[in-house]
Amino acid sequence: MSKRTMPDTDPLPEWVEEPFGEGMGDEKPQGLTSQAEIRSHIAELEDEAPAEDEFLPPADYELRDRRTLQDVSDDVERLRNEIDHLRARLSIIQHQAATVVRSNVAWADASAHAQLGPYPWAKLAGAMAATFIGARMLGRAAGFAAMVLPLIARPPNRAQDR
């Protein structure tokens, strides 16, 4: 494969702004002209680079001794015990919640029996159905009344009375 080299002066695409400003034409900016200047500039940049500086740890960093495998194993065992303890507590809370729900259902049922007698849910459903049917009938009656009321309530015609 042949190696191609890029020409030094490629024409810029039209969407790229002129890098040296208006009116500067083809003049090149003044800069490093010799290899020695380039090497000295690179050496200055390397001296300023933070890569070789000593990095300090953050202010809140605590310096600890290295942990042994036994320390890590103890921590894992402690966490497993804590997870088991939390699962047991969660199980107790779930059992208590189920008991509360059951007792509330039993209380609501007993309250309904005390207020409505036997078959309270059937009586409640019947009352709801009667309310629905009554509202439908009243709506139709209101339409009929709106039609008939002007005929009934009109003032008597005095001309017909004579």
Brief rundown of the structure:
This protein is mainly alpha-helical and 162 residues long. It contains 4 helices and no strands.
Topology record:
Elements: H1 35-48, H2 69-116, H3 120-153, H4 158-161
Helix pairs in contact: 2-3
> What's the pLDDT, averaged over the residues?
78
- Shape summary: elongated
Radius of gyration using CA atoms only: 47 Å
Fraction of residues in helices? 55-70%
Unreliably modeled segments: none
Query: What is the count of β-strands?
Result: 0
Q: How large is the count of helical segments?
A: 4
**What is the ordering of alpha helices and beta strands?**
HHHH
Distance between the termini: 126 Å
Structural class based on helices, strands and sheet pairing: mainly alpha
- The amount of beta strand, in percent, is under 5%
Characterize the main sheet. Answer: none
